[in-house]
């Protein structure tokens, strides 16, 4: 299984507080817990040529992770187009936190993906509302994060195919924090936590959800559907 | 209630067979059965300035119908953008038949919206699979159409929020023919039948479904949600 | 439109605190805001013969409301059977608060309908997560209730067809508080608030949701589907 | 992984035609293709004590398959209760063909589970409508069965969580043939084909779907949720 982690990688280079938390970048933090015997992980960042997302890499990726925040508009449209195409062909996509406003997520959702937000060192408690889902294997009744950015409803997304996690926030809001979608031949998981100024991706529960999601999102082995003009399978009677 | 019917209106002007069926255009055929005491209907077509879709008209439209086929690419992106925005603000949208490949439907769905098709004077039988839905009020167990174009699965759309009708085709295919979606503050209904070379929009059952759909799709009266930075409602405890 | 409100009506007769809030019973409080020119409302309670749910009444009911709590087990199975049958035939059903544990709701859901609970004069804030839904017409971004019983996840129900409202509770939990289902030919709405020891059903927002839900749940006018042995519509070829 | 196949096992013993197709019973035919290095399979039949479904066996079953037809009413209610309980605790359940009318399926669905049917040596073509689903891994665009019993809509089930397969029938009907549900902590898959008088369970495509479904339905490893009275996690302010 081949995973590609895409990270904007700007905060970590320009903001000391963030650099202290993720000295090698959020992508490296994610890579360090995703890499296992049967999962190989590569990374790509905004400032690489083609944002590190070459045709060849895409074709060889089973599941992609996406973290972006302040530079969504710098991601080039033709690259977004290619990632979109790969998702429709079957590549899994895990969109993290502020990636809700990325071009690729908006393009897949068809909505604004807007929400309420607040940075206030706030407690978050993500409750499992779908206990049957492989994405919450090994997770207790909830995941508690001591300090996070708040995201609040209304979250302008299509009703998820499956709602797995719902967040409670100290300041009074709720949020659909773990949402699955199936688009084309690909599976998508949106996972809320991970503001750059908190050590969220070191949290064991958060890591477990991401690890589970990567396995859940891998493509099913079958031929892509055929489209277009189709011969009749059964005889069609001539009509008057 | 104010309805706006958008029609590409090309086949009817350039193809004699189609002109014989819809001499004043598909939009006029739709208008004639939609207009009632409490529903006012306007029409717009591709070759009008701004495709007949002015800002003012859009703001005053509760539900829009969309029929297009051979000239999807001629619909200008900034107009699509405006229609998209209005759907997210609450305008209902009924996408008919070959409108599956329109820019607006693709943008809302996030997928290719591709499918199988065949023009072969084929019998179609649309079965009601959700008998609770207001869209099938007054409809029997199925709607039979003597001759139609075939559309077959896989239909590359997100799993509909509600699947209302499923078509059987003489040539051996099935199709999800009546699909609802909710995106932003707007409701969308995709309805399959209506190939230009058949008199489908004179079919009583087809008309009833479209009439029902228009009522179902009207906007709910409430303020649009607010987004962005939000003050805490509850007190947040200072943390270490 | 004919509405039947069913209420256990025990707390109000045996508990002074509750009697002070709902002196004529919860059913009368519900009736007083539901009755309008085009909606006629009757009530029924546990201790009437057949719990007030006669065959004739059921046949003439479009939408039924159900409030029960301490005496779910006293509701006779053959009455539950009849209500269940009527829902499958198209009658709408609004299940309120502790009705989550009623026999009829469990029978319709197929699950335990269990949940977490706590009586602690707790603040509840129900957030709208589906702004397109007619059930939240006229409702702002949330409904706040100063003091309520807490219900917390995991709520053991099937994933709702539509999730409309999600509650935040002061004590740290979340809950899927407004859930729609379609079963057979009937529509069901579960609505969380309404503990007997709080004046919740006098809350304007709560009343509005219930009023909207009653309209949403009314049966669609069409014949009930036919089942059983069916003649072929198309010719079936003899096989070897 | 431990699988338990339950079969009514009456047709095979009393009907020569069926006995010729499944001489050792449908359960043995299913067992023969399900058993692998990492899946151990046991079988149980109606006429065994407790229908072969002992407490101990249930506790040790990860996924159960259910085939029944003429003797649904002979399955004892207390056994149905136990199977139901185990599904809510996490056991997967694959309900096959005429099992749609079994007590356990009706209890889980909350509806009548009724449908149209016809025995007429009819061609069936099951189309994949969800190409992302692990249940159709290795399956082409459709599965064709030369001769089967027809099942037709309306199928009186709750809208499935996921609709995976839709059948076309020669005689003019369609049917939702592959449906997933999640109830309690368990996953359910209803799979239409498998009338006793046809060799359907020897069909490679049908076998592949059942094999995939068994893997998909296995329980997620996490503690069962806790229910009932819950202590506050956060401080609740005293109110007036």
TrEMBL record, chains A, B, C, D:
Record-linked InterPro entries: Class_I_gatase-like, ThuA-like, Trehalose_catabolism_ThuA_prok
All copies of domain ThuA-like, residue ranges: 2-217
Listed Pfam families: ThuA
Tree of life domain: Bacteria
The protein, known as: ThuA domain-containing protein
């Amino acid at each position: 299984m081949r995973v590609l982690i895409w990270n904007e990688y700007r905060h970590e280079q320009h903001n000391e507080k963030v650099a202290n938390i993720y000295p090698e970048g959020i992508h490296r933090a994610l890579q360090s817990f995703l890499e296992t015997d049967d999962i190989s992980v590569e990374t790509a960042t905004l400032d690489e040529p083609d944002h590190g997302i070459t045709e060849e890499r895409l074709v060889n990726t089973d599941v992609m992770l996406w973290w972006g925040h302040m530079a969504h508009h710098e991601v080039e449209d033709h690259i977004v187009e290619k990632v979109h195409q790969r998702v429709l062909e079957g590549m899994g996509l895990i969109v993290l936190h502020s990636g809700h406003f990325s071009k690729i997520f908006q393009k897949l959702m068809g909505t604004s993906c807007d929400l309420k937000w607040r940075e206030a060192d706030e407690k978050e408690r993500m409750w499992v509302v779908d206990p049957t889902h492989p994405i919450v294997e090994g997770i207790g009744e909830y995941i508690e994060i001591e300090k996070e950015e708040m995201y609040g409803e209304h979250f302008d997304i299509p009703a998820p195919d499956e709602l797995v996690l719902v967040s409670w926030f100290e300041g009074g809001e709720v949020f659909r924090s773990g949402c699955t979608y199936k688009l084309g031949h690909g599976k998508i998981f949106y996972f809320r936590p991970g503001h750059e100024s908190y050590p969220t991706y070191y949290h064991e529960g958060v890591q477990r959800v991401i690890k589970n999601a990567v396995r859940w999102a891998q493509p099913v082995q079958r031929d892509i559907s055929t489209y277009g003009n189709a011969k009749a399978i059964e005889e069609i009677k001539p009509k008057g």
